[in-house]
Amino acid sequence: MTLTGQHFIAGARSGDPADDFLAWDPRADGPLPTPFADGSEAEVAVAAEAAADAFVHYRRLSAETRAQFLEAIADEIEALGDALLNRAAQETALPAARLQGERGRTCGQLRAFAHWLREPLHPVLHDEALPERQPLPRPDLRLGQVPLGPVAVFGASNFPLAFSVAGGDTAAALAAGCPVIVKGHPAHPGTSELVASAITRAAARTDVPAGVFSLIQGRTPALSIALVRHPAIAAVGFTGSAAVGQSLAAEAAARPTPIPFFGELGAVNPQVILPGQLAAQPDQLAQMQAASMVMGQGQFCTSPGLVLLPDSDGADRYLASLAEALAEHNEGVMLTPGIARAYRSGADHLASQPGVTELARGRNDGHPNGAVPIVYQVNAADAINNPELFEEVFGPCVLVITGAQGEALGDLIAALPGQLTTTVHGNDADFARHSDLLETLAYTCGRLIANQMPTGVEVCAAQNHGGPWPASTAPQTTSVGGEAIQRFLRPLAYQNWPAAQLPESLR
Question: What residue stretches are annotated with the Aldehyde dehydrogenase domain (predicted)?
Answer without folding.
Answer: 36-458
